[in-house]
Design brief:
By secondary structure, the chain is α/β, with parallel strands linked by helices. The chain has 11 helices and 11 strands.
């Protein structure tokens, strides 16, 4: 049965008037009259006694009103209390992100977001793989890419450009010597990320020695351990540089490597919690390097 018909019935029963019910619901009186007639045909009973002056519930109409009136009210309350129906963002926000960003960057961002929106429960899943947001039920992803994301089922919002800088451990430099120009790196051991050779302005190493890893946190730790020089996002080396465990080399020669994107499934209505987190991250990044 169409719940709209029952809602119209309850409104007419409360106001005892087709005209008053139509005005309250902002619909034509004729639509209300037709809908009540349709409901009576479907139920096979007469719900209202009609005269030229007034409308009153029949015995059966009174019984129906007593049964469905409270239930429709509770149904409206239940729908109104759903997380996305509330003005303040709430509900669970399921996020996927690369491990390096998730470990070093997201904790502080999520903590600040939770202070602003305590009604949102945040669940972060860190993985190097490209998650299917729609199939796996994720609300959003943070992704790094060197080219525009082309999935037509997703919306991608650019958050920040990412740059890599050259770092080394003091123990490595003491052993192998200081680096003053990009050309000096040609004869050094490198710690590579995903087997990628160092991009310009750094020359191809004369000998392919060093260490390769497919996780930036591993590359960070390998550089700190003195295994070679390597490129890292500055945020991954900030604490090590401050503590003296790593040194940034050639600060004028940073390399642009990609863009950090905020990605979420395309839909007619974007959940309020997703919009709130997106806007928060844009604001958060604007105040931080």
């Amino acid at each position: 049965m169409d719940l709209n018909l029952l809602s119209l019935f309850v409104e007419v029963a409360k106001t005892a008037s087709f005209t008053a019910a139509a005005a309250k619901l902002n619909v034509p009186r004729s639509s209300v009259s037709r809908s009540i007639a349709q409901l009576e045909v479907e139920l096979g009973v007469q719900l209202f006694n009609r005269t030229t002056r007034k409308v009153s519930l029949s015995t059966t109409g009174t019984a129906l009103y007593e049964r469905v009136g409270p239930q429709l009210l509770e149904l409206r309350k239940s729908i109104g209390s759903l997380p996305e129906q509330e003005e303040e963002p709430s509900g669970e926000l399921l996020i996927t992100a690369p491990t390096d960003i998730g470990v070093t960057y997201l904790p502080d961002a999520v903590a600040a977001f939770k202070l602003r929106h305590p009604g949102v429960t945040v669940d972060v899943r860190l993985t190097p793989r490209r998650v299917d947001l729609v199939a796996e039920g994720f609300d959003l992803a943070l992704r790094v890419s060197s080219k525009p994301l082309g999935d037509s089922s997703l919306v991608a919002r650019r958050l920040s450009e990412l740059e890599m800088a050259l770092f080394a451990a003091p123990s490595y430099l003491a052993r192998r010597g200081t680096i003053r120009t990009p050309e000096d790196t040609e004869h050094h051991d490198w710690v590579y990320f995903r087997t990628a050779l160092p991009p310009p302005p750094f020359p191809k190493p004369v000998r392919r020695s060093g260490v390769t890893g497919d996780d930036l946190l591993f590359v960070q730790q390998a550089i700190r351990a003195g295994l070679g020089i390597g490129l890292l996002p500055s945020f991954l080396a900030r604490e090590e540089v401050a503590s003296g465990q790593m040194v940034q080399l050639l600060p004028r020669h940073s390399v642009k490597t990609g863009t950090l994107y905020f990605v979420y499934p395309k839909g007619h209505t974007v959940p309020r919690k997703v919009t709130a987190f997106r806007n928060f991250l844009l604001e958060y990044l604007a105040t931080r390097p």
